[in-house]
Amino acid sequence: MTRLSITVPWKIFTLIALLGLLAVPAVMAAASTADKTVTDSYGRTVTVPSEPKEVICSGSGCLRYLTYLGAQNLAAGVDSIEKEPQKMDARGYALLNPQFKDLPLFGEYRGKDDPEKIIAINPQLIFKISSSGQADAATKDEADKLSSKTSIPVIMMPYGSLRTAEEQEQMFSTLRIMGEATGKQDRAEELISYIKDTIADLQSRTKDIPESDQKTAYVGGVSYAGAHGIISTEPAYPPFLWDNIKNVAGKMGTQHADVAKEAIVDWDPDYLFMDIGTIQTDNEGGIGELKNDPALASLKAVKNGNVYGVLPYNFYSTNYENVLADAYYIGKIVYPDKFADIDPQAKADEIMTKFLGSSPLKDINSQYKNLGLTKLTI
User: Fold this and answer.
1) CA within 13 Å, CB half, 58
2) Which of 150, 158, 86, 145 has its CA nearest to residue 364?
3) DSSP state of 304
4) Are 378 and 302 in contact (CB under 8 A)?
């Protein structure tokens, strides 16, 4: 039997060997870019996919942040609030993304996660908003336990707010962390710059008003874990701070507070602003109280017709776009000469579009009897 002998030219052999060597760094590079590390708000270093395709957002308002970043298409599941029918809904992010209702359920609202449901959905990454007032150690432990139970990386962040510089930085940090994890860093910086510029514009309009000429005001009916009446307020209500309006409840700190009705009567502010989320309670909430309570009806703001409706501050945490929109409306009412160039409805549309991609203003207002950004009849 004759054997065939095949001779491979040495040049071809050398070329094949070189190509093989060149391929090794490429394979190693591909492996090294498959993951990246992100440090969350609590100092936890989390290894996540470089370009996650499916994530879930747990906790009050977490999905709002994902929508702000324009990454809502990454949502692979939702908590129960996204599926529950709402008689009235002030969550612009949800109104503009009805597809959220059709996504699988991973747990109950306010961060009550079901690890088994999460495993079934199998997202690549979990974003989780930390519980308000919870110690850092407990927050880290909560994130570590969820990651351990699901074998899925968990990034933990606070919700933040616009009330104080510290809480604003928390909000900005959360945007940046989520932006880094989703590849939306540029969008995060764009939105942060817009927020800072908007606040600076508001402050610049009224900064020269002497303290003796600054008006007094009270905001009532602010939702907090549900709708409330007139005694529910924000002592550090950002629109008043930015517009240099004296908040009559301002000495009560920076967190949400309930005040005595008698205190409101004693303060007797120049202006009353009612968060229209209050009408979700019985008898139109705080607006009904102003109409039916003789003591409240005696307030000079009621007698002078200075009672106005503002868009809901909270609905599953703070609606940041509403807060900024309300600030321009309130400024226009209290200091009209300082806001002469502002059409509050048009400004609200602009702000909402910047945050959400388009404006849900008409949809929100229609659900709340068109009481937002308007004078109330008492």
Assistant:
1) 26
2) 86
3) T
4) yes
3-state secondary structure of 40: coil
Does residue 198 sit within a domain? no
Going by pLDDT thresholds of 50, 70 and 90, the confidence category of residue 201 is very high
Under 8 Å between Cβ of 234 and 228: no
Of 292, 334, 337, nearest in space to 310 by CA? 334
Distance CA 349, CA 87 (A): 23
- Both 185 and 214 in a single domain? no
Assign residue 135 the CATH number of its domain.
3.40.50.1980
The residue type found at 58 is S
- Interstrand relation of 125-129 and 105-108 (parallel, antiparallel or unpaired): unpaired
For residues 159 and 224, what is the distance between their CA atoms, to the nearest angstrom?
A: 14
What is the extent of the structural domain holding 242?
210-375
CA-CA-CA-CA dihedral for 95, 319, 290, 370, to nearest 10: -30
What is the per-residue pLDDT across 155-183, written as a single tens digit (0 to 9) for each? 999 999 999 999 999 999 999 999 999 99
- Cα-based distances in Å from 179 to 27, 97, 99, 341, 351: 27, 19, 22, 34, 20
